[in-house]
Amino acid sequence: LQLCIMSVANKKGSALFSGFRALGLYSNHLPHVVRYHKKHREFYVVTAVGKCFHTYNVKKLGIVAVSNALPEDISSLAADRMLVFVAHGKLVSAFARNKEVVHTYKGHNAEVHLLLPFGDHMISVDKDNILIIWDVQSEEEYLQITFDKTAFDVSAIMHPSTYLNKILLGSSQGGLQLWNVKSNKLLYTFSGWSSGVSVLTQAPAVDVVGVGLSSGQIIVHNIKYDETLMKFQQDWGPITAISFRTDGHPVMAAGSPVGHIGLWDLEDKKLIAQMRNAHNTSIAGLTFVQGEPLLITNAADNAIRVWIFDAPGGGGRLLRCRIGHSAPPTRIRHHGQNGKQILSAGHNTGTLQSFSIIHERFNKSLGHGSINKKKSKKKGLQYDTMKLPAITTFASETARQSDWDGIVACHRGFLSVTTWNYQKTSMGVHKLEPERFERNRALNVHATAVDITSCGNFAVVALSSGHLDVYNMQSGYHRGQYGKDKAHEGPVRGLAVDGLNQLTVSVGADKLIKIWKFKSKELVHTVALKSSPAAVFLHRDSGMLAIALDDFAINILDMETRRIVRIFSGHNGQINDMAFSPDGRWLITSSMDCTIRTWDLPSGCLIDCFLLDAAAVSITMSPTGDFLASAHVDDLGIYLWSNNTLCRPVSLRPLPSDYEPAVVMLPGTCPVQEMEYEVEEVTSDEMIEYESPEQLADQLVTLSLLPDSRWKNLLKLDIIKKRNKPKEPPKVPKSAPFFLPTVPGLLPQFGAADSSSTEGQSKIVNFGVLAQKSDFYHQLEDALVSNDYTGAVSLLKGMGPSSIETELRGLAPDVGGSLDVMQSFLKMIISILDSKRDFDLAQAYLALFLKLHLRLISEEPVLMDLAREVSTRIEETWTNMQMLFNKSLCLLAYMKSALL
Q1: CATH number of the domain that 44 lies in?
Q2: Is 632 left (phi over 0), alpha (psi -120 to 50) or beta?
Q3: Residue 328 near residue 339 (C-beta atoms within 8 A)
Q4: How do residues 327-355 score in pLDDT, each as one tens digit?
Q5: How far apart are CA 495 and CA 513, in angstroms?
Q6: Are 424 and 385 in contact, with CB atoms under 8 Å apart?
Q7: Where is the WDR36/Utp21 C-terminal domain positioned along the sequence (predicted)?
Q8: 839 has which bridge partners?
Q9: For position 832, what pLDDT does the model report?
Q10: Which ranges constitute the DSSP H helices of 518-659?
Q11: By the 8 A CB rule, do 23 and 355 touch?
């Protein structure tokens, strides 16, 4: 255990970021499951997503629950009235309340791929062709049946309606078997149709099942009489899913591997409609909602769609959907300053999508990029030869998005830059392309980088030929170029425009950073780099430009001083993306070495680093600073990481150069084990909060921590008393409420109850009691002998301004004080100055003392000598402070202007 704790202490996860949740994940290749909740009277659809499953309501397709993650990907999904059964690897788990695992079934020696809830039991089939029947509550095996893989390879399973204790099995050889699982008997064998069975579905009629074959044939079969009622043939490949309408229309829907759905009329025995391109990939599952004209479909293209059949012709129209990227996203950026929308461009598809971190209903799909939108609509998506390639980079701005397009995007290997309209959720009206290449289209020139100004009026486009062009976003007209011929002698790798449209900065493969005047296109400054740049990212508010180099280093250029002010090195792979925190203090970088690192710009140190299983290809920090979003290699989702510094204090210690980061799993993809909690608790005390000592060093002057109101108003008490003078005398209340007596002062304290009654007391005033000396007076008297003034100083610290004035006024001989006590007070001021603590209090107390007793001090030689000594000490202390201030200002000026 000690070795484990030591290893975790050496390798810790991220201190700044914690996994929050995933966006844009809706479905994979497994068929969905539809459940009905009797109490809610609502249908729910359950889909598998990697290591967990999601539950949506059918009414609005709003997400209801996300299950706890499993250690392996889900291989099969099933559900009954109470539980959701999930197969992962060799295990089967039962989830309750769509959330936590309540049962685990262990016994298979191969991967489980078929599940069937069966009353109080559950049936599972693995790849070794072993069928096991489990008792759901006891988690014990009820029955195990082994099939010969060469003769009967189980490929489908179902329970025929009204057939007590019986299940129907389909095989990849084409035969069917009817079993009584209670008596463990094979009741009947169906010869089949010389093609593998891929789907078995119960028809609305008793004894009738729908059988989908790998040959594309659909058989409607009566299993009671072993009689085929009807046959249908689909030419789109094997049947992947079958469902029957139950709302009074005799219609059967069948899915195909190419994404088409065929609708068959069971009375006329003919095809009545085709739903082509319902999905981009194979139809994983389709289900008609019981008693409603709704069809739910899902597929591996990361989409769930609900179709409604309310129009003539028999076909369904899309009612609602949840669509994510069908290919891994390669570029993500926050849109706007509220941090609620994330724009994302997908791989191998020229699509642009917007995901909301609030709710899925706010998601948008801006569609496919096309060379000619009208021709593309006529041809359809399947045969569209005018689709644009994948988007490599884009920039967005919300300033004028209600007036014209606010997004510009570059496409892979494409010269033209497209514009997009976020509010219209479609591709824009302009294609930004310079006229210089119209006559020579054979040139292999493409757009490499793009940026849009903060005002939303101009777009700057960089080309692989070294050109840098400016376009007007409203008209799409070309408004000039940077440089006489070219901006760089090679491809432009990155560009950025500052927040005030004053400067444009570009970096090229010629290892140069060039800063241009935005309006006049004049070259202002050039900085040479040690290595070729790969990308740039500008924080407009602070003017810090991050430049990723091909040697895996990161340079920070200050746009104000135009110098490289920071150099960060530590990545061991290509730097994929960079992001700044909203205040510009942190730079977050992701690399192909699968790490995400956070650098602190003021200190120039690495303060956070964590390792991932898959490299982050793109990251973006929310403008509000609450979330970091990341997209990863071969992953369809966008993952949110919450910023821990907004919730609790985090110690940002610089990490050592030999720091080895620990692997952090993506949000919602790994179960948190109990052992990990224990280790975290043991090692969490490493991040100890810094406790400042009372005095950092003897050479430094230390101020007190008291509020300003305790000492700043000491010289203005007469003005305050005059201002707060009551207008009328206080009135005695008729019946005063009971309360505990308190001692007057800044800190309320309960006083001791007076046991003697006030009725028997004498009304004669005892002047000896009035002349009683205070605790502060006694402390000053004792300090004359002991020379220890700590007690007297601590008493003054606990008093209010009025009490302090009363104490200092009582030091004079004419009101009961003495010259010795006044000397002791001046010696107390000298001791405070010598200790270099409470410098502000010493000045305030001395100023009030001089204001009250200046005439007496000038008349007494002993007090004058002490006053001169105090004046000398104050001048020495202030001279020392002035020298420290000058040193600090000089050091700050050097750090700001020096080349580090």
Answers
A1: 2.130.10.10
A2: beta
A3: no
A4: 899 999 999 999 999 999 987 777 899 99
A5: 10
A6: no
A7: 694-896
A8: none
A9: 87
A10: none
A11: yes
Q: Are residues 431 and 518 in the same domain?
A: yes
Closest CA to 12 of 653, 463, 642: 653
641 and 604 in a single domain? The answer is: yes
Domain's final residue, options 115, 146, 177: 146
- Name the residue among 416, 418, 456 with its Cα closest to residue 438: 416
Amino acid identity of residue 6, one-letter, is: M
Coil, helix or strand at residue 867: helix
Choice between 473 and 808, residue whose per-residue pLDDT is larger: 473
Helices (H), 666-766: 674-683, 717-723
Confidence (pTM):
0.77
User: CA nearest 717: which of 727, 705, 706, 725?
Assistant: 725
- pLDDT tens for 114-152 read 999 999 999 999 999 999 999 999 999 999 999 999 999
Rounded to an integer, the average pLDDT of 197-219 is 95
Q: Are 293 and 321 spatial neighbours (Cβ–Cβ below 8 Å)?
A: no
For the chain, the residue count is 900
Amino acid at 707: P
- Indicate the residue type of 771: A
- For 272, other C-beta atoms within 10 Å of its C-beta total 15
Q: Name the burial class of residue 84, with classes exposed (0-12), middle (13-18) and buried (19+) by CB atoms within 10 angstroms of its CB.
A: buried
Residue among 644, 608, 610 nearest 626 (CA): 644
Percent of the chain whose pLDDT exceeds 90: 58
pLDDT in tens, 422-445: 999 989 989 998 888 876 665 789
Total domains in the fold of the chain = 4
| Pairing verdict, β 554-558 and 544-549 | antiparallel
